[in-house]
Write a structure and sequence with these properties.
By secondary structure, the chain is α/β, with parallel strands linked by helices. The protein starts with a helix and ends with a strand. The C terminus is likely disordered.
């Protein structure tokens, strides 16, 4: 179970091979039965952080559940860059993204989340991992001030950080190939903003049936009104443009 927890992508056959190398011979079906066995129930203490999402925590609309996470990108001989992003679980829209040349602090991720809140409004649920930036008191005070509930993401859960992990995979295979090498930090930040706009507005998303995150986000946001069009001197003028 610990192997499956730490290596979520491993199948039962690979786990059985690994155990065999340690002298514990189990068949693939035995490993499969153990992995699928429900964990024993226990009473959780009051105010104890949970390691999984509640089954009912499903994004029902934009702004219902947000995910925030960090990843690092190597820069050849210049160390690593550290990227943080806020993603809406319902629409897969990237609400905010930022990069640093140092390991971001709790104040850094707090500033990133605050920028997303000021632009799109407060969210109901925030899902994070147990990183030091997210369990810090300063980050928790921001959530409390905006009445945002918190959940800690479970490994390999479709309702958890797996969604933002998939975004990291897309970013590293589509957006940062070949240009992070010796570029300046300002140039990298500009390229990330360009990728964010393209990801939200142009990229067809497999999990959304081929739609873009912006289409899903604005389609289900009540505050968005259909743009009004009127003709003035044979010129098409758009008013009340949102997005």
């Amino acid at each position: 179970l610990r192997l499956k927890l730490e290596q979520a992508a491993w199948g039962c056959r690979r786990i059985a091979w690994t155990l065999a190398r340690l002298g514990l011979k189990l068949s693939r079906t035995s490993v499969q039965r153990i992995v699928r066995r429900p964990p024993p129930s226990r009473r959780r203490r009051r105010n104890e952080p949970t390691g999984r999402n509640d089954p009912g925590l499903v994004a029902k609309r934009p702004g219902h559940v947000w995910l925030i996470d960090l990843t690092s990108v190597p820069r050849l001989l210049l160390g690593s860059l550290h990227v943080a992003a806020v993603v809406d679980l319902f629409s897969r829209k990237v609400m905010a993204i930022q990069v640093w040349a140092h390991v971001p602090t709790a104040n850094d991720v707090r500033t990133l989340l605050l920028a997303a809140i000021l632009r799109y409004g407060p969210v109901t649920w925030m899902v994070t991992d147990h990183g030091t930036q997210f369990v810090a008191k300063r980050f928790g005070r921001l959530l409390k001030r905006h009445r945002i509930r918190r959940r800690f993401g479970a490994v390999a859960s479709s309702q958890s950080v797996a969604v933002i992990d998939r975004f990291w995979r897309s970013l590293k295979t589509e957006g940062i190939v070949g240009f992070f090498g010796f570029r300046s930090l300002a140039w990298v930040r500009h390229r990330l903003k360009v990728y964010q706009r393209w990801f939200n507005g142009e990229r067809a998303h497999g999990g959304l049936g081929g739609a873009t995150p912006n289409e899903i986000h604005w389609r289900h946001t009540p505050a968005v009104r259909t743009p009004r069009l009127r003709i003035r001197h044979a010129t098409l003028v758009r008013r009340d443009f949102a997005g």
